[in-house]
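Dear colleague,

Thank you for sharing your sequence with our group. We've completed the structure prediction you requested, and as agreed, I am returning the results in plain text so they can be pasted directly into your records. Please verify that the sequence below matches your submission; if there's any discrepancy, let me know and we will rerun it promptly.
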Amino acid sequence: MFASVRVVGAGLIGTSIALALKSNGKQVEVIDIQPAAQLLAVDLVKGEQISQPDLILVAVPVDVTEGVVLEQISSNPNSLVCDLSSVKSDLQLKVKQLSGNTNNFISLHPMAGREVSGAEGARADLFDGRAWIAIENLDADDRAKSIVSELIKICSGTAYWMSATKHDEVVASLSHLPQILSSALAAQLNAISEENLSTAGQGLRDVTRLAKSDAQLWTKILLNNNQSISVALLRLIDDLSKLEKDLSSKNERNVKSFLQSGIEGKDRIPGKHGAKERDYSFLPIVIDDKPGQLARIFNECAQVNVNVEDLSIEHSPGQETGLITLALSQSDCQKLSLHLIEQGFKVHPAKYR
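Please find the predicted structure tokens below.
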């Protein structure tokens, strides 16, 4: 449905989408007001100049999105223009009021990112299995919707249509609040000595990963969605206040309920493409540290026709053995376990979670 794309904004999101589109054979142009950023993105993507693109993607900071969108719509009346901003508010309404060309505008938000910013962190597979929120627009024609569907498919994502108001409420809880929590926790570390920080485990690093995100970019995002974020933030503050009281009073039942509620919430996060997360079985196998052991296991998987969804390897230099843990469906796990035991592998009881 479309052959050429102009990406306005050579940051992480814009360059990553450009890489995905280029690998699909599309003509791609990348432009940016910062010459150095544009040059890097163009070199990465092998971009080219396009005079009349079929699709224009606006991937610029949220505070300048409206102006850039209106400029591109005005200069390219036959192109479909899509912004990729993480806050929607009344952008669609302003486009209708100021351009009168909303049939060629659809607002999108790919729910993906990294803690590193700029084209330096761009990846063609950044959006694999990710949700794309598309803002409902009754004025958009079938051609525009078809182009959006193709774009999301190329990026291996799944589209979810909703109103702009609902979008801002949803991302306040699912995207903006996690950034606030990660930054808040990381800020507490400034009061801890370097010696004591040396004892930090992986859990702290996991929870504070988002704290490395671009502060200037996120300041604009949080301020532009301040109303929806405030609602979500007040709910969280209320929960934390109750937890503090329960800890002070040593209320074991309420503290356990708080933690259990977190387990239940985590379990509700869907898996790939928005589907319900699958309950895998995890099969531990001890192998000797010598060439060909992992290949042997996969050959046996092929023999009994089982599908391995994921795997982890635990091994340290100098260690004579290693632990391979395979993630499979429960039925495949049982089949493979029996088969590997018959073949002499050191298989241990599976774990289900």
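Summary note from our side: The chain is about 45% helix and 15% strand.

Kind regards,
the structure core
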